[in-house]
Amino acid sequence: MSFVDVIAKKRDGRALSREDIEGFVNGVTAAEIPEYQAAALLMAIVIRGMSDQETAWLTDAMLRSGDRVDLSDLPGVKVGKHSTGGVGDKVSIVLAPLAAACGVVVPKMSGRGLGHTGGTLDKLEAIPGYRTDLTIDEFKQVLRRVGASIVGPTSALAPADKRLYALRDVTATVASIPLIAASVMSKKLAEGGDGLVLDVKCGDGAFMKSEPEARELARTLVAIGTQAGLRTEALITTMDAPLGRAIGNAVEIVECLETLKGRGPDDLVALSTALAARMLVLAGRAGEAEADRVVQRALASGAALDKMRALIEAHGGDSRVVDDYGRLPQAARRCAIRAAHDGYIERLRAELVGRASMALGAGRRRMNDAIDRGAGVLVMKKPGEAVHAGETVLELLYNDARELAEASAFAHEAIHVSAAPPVLPPLIRGRVA
Amino acid sequence: MSFVDVIAKKRDGRALSREDIEGFVNGVTAAEIPEYQAAALLMAIVIRGMSDQETAWLTDAMLRSGDRVDLSDLPGVKVGKHSTGGVGDKVSIVLAPLAAACGVVVPKMSGRGLGHTGGTLDKLEAIPGYRTDLTIDEFKQVLRRVGASIVGPTSALAPADKRLYALRDVTATVASIPLIAASVMSKKLAEGGDGLVLDVKCGDGAFMKSEPEARELARTLVAIGTQAGLRTEALITTMDAPLGRAIGNAVEIVECLETLKGRGPDDLVALSTALAARMLVLAGRAGEAEADRVVQRALASGAALDKMRALIEAHGGDSRVVDDYGRLPQAARRCAIRAAHDGYIERLRAELVGRASMALGAGRRRMNDAIDRGAGVLVMKKPGEAVHAGETVLELLYNDARELAEASAFAHEAIHVSAAPPVLPPLIRGRVA
Predict the structure, then answer these.
(1) Least confident window among A113-122, A379-388, B356-365
(2) How far is the alpha carbon of A27 from chain B, nearest alpha carbon, in Å?
């Protein structure tokens, strides 16, 4: 069957065979299928959809397009974590040392920020000396010694995903649950863990705007993981406003350290501990009833903070930042964004806060942009909190004022003040297993 | 609005604006929009469709991507003809001199054959010396002198269509009524006539397999033409079996000459005279009631044949072929395809007969293939005719036997014999105006 016939099949709403899908993925990886043909098939997939079976075959073909990390010689149960992405989402940096302090091995491959969302690697690199580019051998050494490691993915994992994602980004074919699920799970399966906890975000600042969409994505992700032999669970969580009170890079590291010291903002603490508890259960380190207590103890005892120190050192970073935030990149200037009138913060639109942070230099528009790790946004008033006219709601931190006006406009637009206290959705909306 | 947003709009089933569509067509013409983005939008259009208004804008943008022939300084009413393509469809070659003999000016730009369908230009070039590559000035001189001219399109007409068609061909995005309609009508409008008669084929051997699809295409084509100020009509005609009894190039010229001499096969005569009559009506050369009679007279009197002679000469061709078919390319060898048992020809599948002809060398697989103008297929028994076991149904004409086995297989597969006489659909199924 020629590739044009494969495209026509999906165009007409018919299911692709395993051979069709493997031919597609292998052809894209080897650059044997022209991009215009791949783009046509991707659009047909976005509109016509894919069955769970097709999605599983796609994931498997993408997984097998590259290497697979072998962690089987490491002792312990290895449980990964993945978030579908939000603003101020620094959970991995809290979670990895926290779960490791409870005996779970946490091999974590993270990404860089793009557009309005930040990236875990960029945040960690705000710590002087922290290396995200470990080799697989170094990664495994850190896991053996510390129990957690957060690194960048090697280019040898799921190379098909890299090519497909670059093409989807410029052809309006990102918005597809099967394509998103195959992209996420091919990488996660390549990372070689035994279990995986997913944080599927839903809301204004997330890719999935509605809860039904988020549930469908979670269901698809869990189905693929489970079918591939990975113990997989997902929490559906709200992403309307930024998570925590810091958006940027160095400021998010500070917030993570504060959280590990027991002084974190409520939402970040709640989500990090909930996800960590699920990792303990998946790893068999705690039963359903006791997992949360074990996690809370690791946080309160300082064991999680100690793990964080060890994690930073093992990655070549300066662990003195844990006690001296002045060693992190700073912003020389600040600009207060104030409430126009009395009331309650009804909404603090995550995407717009993320755009403000990007405009200040903390994020990148394009993959090769440089970023300013001292810049960012602080949230002084969270949704639900009362505010008086003239009170500061957001604080913009910056070194370069060139795009301050744009950042300020985004920040003002992000704030909605209402007369009555708003009814806010719960942070954790449900679990899919 | 970025082009990715335009793609997303159509992906989500929303209507494109005139600006969106112009940006697309101009970007494709100037090669400023990458092919992968154009392919993604084309697929979204194929699946989501386009309104009549969007299709009209697309046609107009494609029309304005290039030159437009100006025939306004020629006397008389200029009426073009276009067929959506079939096997053995030689109607234009009969129709042009026939309508011209009745006083209609017939400016006809035709195409080359590809795949299982032949091309009018290839057939005419079987006549020694016949030039299809006239300049616009030469084309107009022939129209002025003879009243009809059949040439190839200049590359300056609707260049956007050329680029888009090449991309659609390799991305499974050909099958779309709006895209087909815009492609046909942008070229026809660029040709500068006053009226247009369309032959929209439907059936096994046509692009539109069902009558409702063919009617929808006809309706769309007529709507675009009418809106653009072109008097446009369409006949819906059956294309299950080849038209006439000859498929190829020189053999089709012979059949056209025989038809102009009053000895043509019933179906070819009926379709050519019906379309010619509509051209007379559109041109105001005859009323509804008398048009058919005027056409029949031009055929019976030899006036149409005289026009054919003049047409050939005006194009530099050897008009002695009209009386001496031996001056046309010949096939040195013949192979009879016989009926396996007694009965009636129930079906003679046009597409398979076309493939047989292509395999014999009369057509091309790819645009740059050379063709053998002497090769082809003769139909000895048409659908509905009785046949005895061992009687010849098709005769394969060839010079090169390399693909004879393949041609023979297609030919055998094309023939369906039934015990009872089949019920055949009418040749002309309706008219859309």
Answers:
(1) A113-122
(2) 15
CB-based contact B248:B67 (threshold 8 Å)? no
Domain B3-49 CATH class label: mainly alpha
Query: Which of A118, A38, A41, A48 is CA-nearest to residue A362?
Result: A118
Q: Is the pLDDT of residue B114 over 80?
A: no
| Contact status, residue A61 vs residue A21, Cβ threshold 8 Å | yes
Which residue of chain B has the CA closest to A12?
A: B47
Rounded to a whole number, what is the distance in angstroms from the first to the last CA of chain A?
38
Return the CATH number of the domain spanning residue range B79-325. 3.40.1030.10
CA distance A430 to A233: 11
Query: What span, in angstroms and rounded, lies between the C-alpha atoms of A150 and A40?
Result: 36
Task: Decide if pLDDT at B155 tops 80.
Answer: no
Question: What are the structural domain ranges in chain B?
Answer: 3-49, 79-325, 330-418
Q: Mutation test of the interface with chain B: which of A14, A20, A43, A173, choosing the one with the most B Cβ atoms within 10 A?
A: A43
Chain-chain contact of B171 with A40 (C-beta, under 8 angstroms)? yes
Is A170 part of the contact surface with chain B (CB cutoff 8 Å)?
A: yes
Residue carrying structure tokens 């603003």: A87
What is d(CA B113, CA A84) in angstroms, rounded to the nearest whole number?
A: 51
Q: Do A43 and B48 touch (CB under 8 A)?
A: no
Q: ipTM above 0.90?
A: no
If you average pLDDT over every residue of chain A, what do you get? Answer: 95
Task: List, as own/partner pairs, every contact residues A363-368 make where C-beta atoms lie below 8 angstroms and the sequence separation is at least 24, other chains included.
Answer: A363/A113, A363/A114, A363/A115, A363/A116, A363/A117, A363/A118, A363/A122, A364/A112, A364/A113, A364/A114, A365/A115, A367/A112, A367/A114
The CATH code of the domain at B330-418 is 3.90.1170.30
Q: Which residues pair with A416 in a beta bridge?
A: A347
Q: State the DSSP H helix or E strand holding residue A393, giving kind and residue range, or none if neither.
A: strand A392-398
pLDDT value at position B207?
Answer: 87
Catalytic residue of the set B9, B10, B168, B285: B168
* A-B contacts at Cβ under 8 angstroms: 86
- Answer yes or no: are the C-beta atoms of B82 and B199 closer than 8 Å: yes
What is the pLDDT of chain B when averaged over all its residues?
Answer: 95
Q: Could you tell me the two tokens for A342?
A: 């009395």
Cα-Cα end-to-end distance for chain B: 38
What residues of A act catalytically?
82, 161, 168, 183, 187
**Interchain contact, A39 vs B44, CB within 8 Å:** no
How many residues are present in chain A?
433
Q: Give the residue from A350, A354, A372 showing the smallest Cα distance to A115.
A: A354
Taking only the tens place, the pLDDT of each residue in A251-271 is: 999 999 999 999 999 999 999
